Amino acid sequence: MTALRQRMIEDMRIRNLSPNTIDSYVGQVARFARHFNCSPERLGAEQVRTYQLHLVQRRESCSTLNQATCALRFLYRYTLAQDWPVERIPYAKKPKKLPLVLSQNEVQRFISAIDSPHHRVLAMAMYAAGLRVSEAISLRPADIDSKQMLIHVVQGKGRKDRLVPLSTSLLEELRQHFRRHRCRLWLFPGAIPGKHISREAVEDAFVKARHAVGRKLVTPHSLRHAFATHLLEDGTDLRTIQVLLGHASLSTTAIYLRVSRKLLGAVKSPLDGLTLLN
């Protein structure tokens, strides 16, 4: 490990960035250095711009481009403390696409199509509580509060804890699940002793079960979208859904107002209130 890499990691740890963010930033800076075959210490604003154009020409996603931008902004602002205006490194404008939302019938068919009971119960937990895949795989038995019927999500996205309701149906499934594996460290243990199940194993299980809902591209995050939309359609207010999802901004949660076919379909057009003369 180079001294620069070590210092950048230390700078991120001081600011309490998550391990996933640290790994992402380090990887992006390494790609930047390999592109020029040169240490970032000897590169500057013009090379950053050239590299961003390179990513655009390679048709990298906006997410990848913005991850690289975040990493390079951090590197040059904090670790290298450059005197040129780092904030001028532009972000890519992400297209605003509506998320895929499964109906309750599709969720039922999809979960039922997952072969492994281990993966099936995990998918149930994700839908029942609106969990991100990273939050679901890292659940511990101690996070399940059956007395108050709550799940304690420890250090979710943004290093934030939150509480979400524990479904009665899920609790029974989790109890049976625990009797099968008896792991007191992780609720969903992985193939490697002492480790929880991997994100890749969950994604593989989802790929195999997609046939149950036809051609739709179902990902672990699809169940989180379905959780939020179905709560909204059942009358749960947007602010409560924001808290349950752990969104920092209500505007992020408001996207579910745009994808609910049930709510949008119930809106009456103002044209229907007019009496038009022939």
Key phrases:
DNA polymerase, domain 1, 53% helix, three-stranded antiparallel beta sheet, mainly alpha, 278 residues, hpI Integrase, Chain A, 2 domains, 5% strand, globular, 14 helices
The helix content, as a percent range, equals 40-55%
Classify the secondary structure makeup into a structural class: mainly alpha
- CATH homologous superfamily classification of the largest domain: Intergrase catalytic core
Largest sheet: 3 strands, antiparallel
Shape: globular
Mean pLDDT: 91
What CATH first level of the largest domain would be assigned? Mainly Alpha
Q: Helical stretch count? A: 14
Number of domains: 2
CATH architecture of the largest domain: Orthogonal Bundle
Give the low-confidence spans: none
- Strand proportion: 5-15%
Series of secondary-structure elements, N-terminal to C-terminal? HHHHHHHEEEHHHHHHH
In CATH, the topology of the largest domain is named hpI Integrase, Chain A
The total count of strands amounts to 3
Rg from alpha-carbon coordinates = 23 Å
Topology:
Elements: H1 3-14, H2 19-36, H3 45-57, H4 62-79, H5 104-112, H6 117-129, H7 133-137, E1 144-145, E2 150-156, E3 160-165, H8 168-181, H9 199-209, H10 220-233, H11 238-245, H12 250-253, H13 256-259, H14 261-265
Antiparallel strand pairs: 1-2, 2-3
Helix pairs in contact: 2-4, 3-4, 6-8, 6-10
In short:
By secondary structure, this protein is mainly alpha-helical. Helix content is 53%, strand content 5%.
Describe the structure.
The protein is mainly alpha-helical and 278 residues long. The longest helix has 18 residues, at 19-36. The chain has a three-stranded antiparallel β-sheet. Strand 2 (150-156) and strand 3 form a beta hairpin. It folds into two domains: 3-88, DNA polymerase, domain 1, CATH 1.10.150; 104-264, Intergrase catalytic core (hpI Integrase, Chain A), CATH 1.10.443. It has helices at residues 3-14, 19-36, 45-57, 62-79, 104-112, 117-129, 133-137, 168-181, 199-209, 220-233, 238-245, 250-253, 256-259, 261-265; strands spanning 144-145, 150-156, 160-165. Helix content is 53%, strand content 5%. The protein is globular, with a radius of gyration of 23 Å.
